[in-house]
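Figure-free illustration: sequence to structure, shown twice.
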Amino acid sequence: MQRPTLETKRLRIRPLVLEDLEACHRLYVDIDWADTRLSEEANREQRRRWLEWTVRNDEQLALLYQPPYGDRAVELKDGGGFVGLVGLVPLLAPFGQLPCFGRVEGARFSPEVGLFWAISPHFQRKGYATEAARALVQYAFGTLKLGRIVAGTERGNSASMAVMRHLGMRLEENPFPEPPWFQVTGLLEASELFS
């Protein structure tokens, strides 16, 4: 299950390589995901360790015939500029708290396949997040034969919710206050796209 390179009209979605370090580091700084308690160099080192793990993770998952979980680089086809990241990630959350899963307060955590994206501010509001995520959704449902994909965000992240809606996701809010990071979930069923 090697991680393929996917292409859209404007984008190439490819496995990350060690040479992506500076672009990934810059992305995390630019979108305020870097650890503000750490120096620039300490943040870069943290990103380097993550990138090395990501590259090795691709190789090891393929050897184990496991799904190609993880982040991928998103770049422009014309010129190859680094746009951001998109990926499929294991997601463990109290999904039973959502109305469509039973609305049980304090529900136990269960696994789902999560869709992730992060786009450099310079490239935001140009449809790249939706385009890259849609390519990954088609790959996940068409090639990997997944039944469902979820994505999560905070209540105030209207841009992320807009991407979810453009993908055809149904948005559900956690009606309970805990955990605080589990606020809005987008759900997309393969049966809704391929019926």
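We now fold a second protein in the same way, so the two outputs can be compared directly.
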Amino acid sequence: MGSSARSRLDQPRTGRTGLISLPSYDPEAFGKLSERIARFLGTGRFIVWMTVVIILWVVWNTLLPDVVRFDDYPFIFLTLMLSLQASYAAPLILLAQNRQDNRDRVNMEQDRARSDRTIADTEYLTREVAALRQGLGEVATRAFIASELGSVRSELQSLLKEIDERREASEAL
């Protein structure tokens, strides 16, 4: 058997073996960088700087001597630079929007799961409250005890009156 790039069969290969090795990049770092660029492209600061650069470009290439001009009218090189900037800006903005959509989707899934847990908890508590109400139906409540005490008091008072009347009747004899 020939020598292998990996020493164990249960371990994945760590790198490509071949003549051409493509550079690797961290997609997360690239995504964060693209979001920062897209955020900057959407600011007033970018518009001001872009306007200043274009004005300087046009002034440089129209008012200065021919020796130092690098892009004569109709400013083809400026058009090329603006097209290049636009061709990079659009995909960077789309990449940033896709990443934001992914974050929104994850947040929505977490909100949905949290909502489901809240609904389940609410249903559980509703069942518990219903069970407690049923249990309290069999237990004497404060109002029931007060009404029963009132009737017991009135009964005791009538018995005391009867006893007093009998005592007075027996003393009168």
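Summary for the second example: The chain has a mean pLDDT of 84.
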